[in-house]
Design brief:
- There is one protein chain.
- By secondary structure, the chain is mostly helical.
- It folds into two domains: about 130 residues, no CATH class; about 100 residues.
- The chain is about 70% helix and about 0% strand.
- α1 packs parallel to α5 and α8 packs antiparallel against α9.
- The relative contact order is 0.12.
Length: about 230
Amino acid sequence: MEMEPVIRLIIIAVLCYVVGSIPTAVIVSKRVFGFDIRERGSGNMGSTNAFRVLGKKWGITVQVVDILKGVFAVVVLSHLFEGNIPFNHYTSFTDETVVKIIAGVSAVLGHVFSVFVGFKGGKGINTAAGMLVGIAPVEVGIIVGVFLLTVFTSGYISLGSIFAALALPTSMAVRHNVFGAEIQGYHTIIYFLIALAVFVVYTHRTNIGRLMSGNESRFEKLRIFVRNRRQ
């Protein structure tokens, strides 16, 4: 009987992992275009390559669905056995928040290591963003701003993703320590956000290499701020 809560938690984690593993870009590229997106562009099945290879319409579709995977895991699947997974408050979080984090991380891992495509998936930024909508919504608004500002200035989506990931724990730390915002479980969640940021940056390590060598693909049409300044 004592193992029942653990079994329930494992079921939630597995279901979230499976949902996160859904290879949206691969499905769209094969069903709509007749080829595997992993054979085009950068070979990645994330939204950046989807925009580059499949175009704006389907790139947005892939991005939205990948975000919704994280939202679904945290908002729906984490409540599958609500009230039946006690942690006896071993952390500064409520039990519900602990389960949400586990559910969200499982979805992100599913996206990055998808069981449906040989455990090679995307970089996890969109699914992580979806997860954070249900856990740290204020930080989501801030990192979206950082992402858009970076992309509209540089034209590099990968750079925007990296800066957004780094802004995640930074923004929460500043809100709590500088502006005195009351954030329940701050001293636990900040470490989770730091770990998530490190993980996202790690998944972009090849992009960082290309950025440093000047070989990263740039979306010139997205450099709105630069174009406006030139005009």
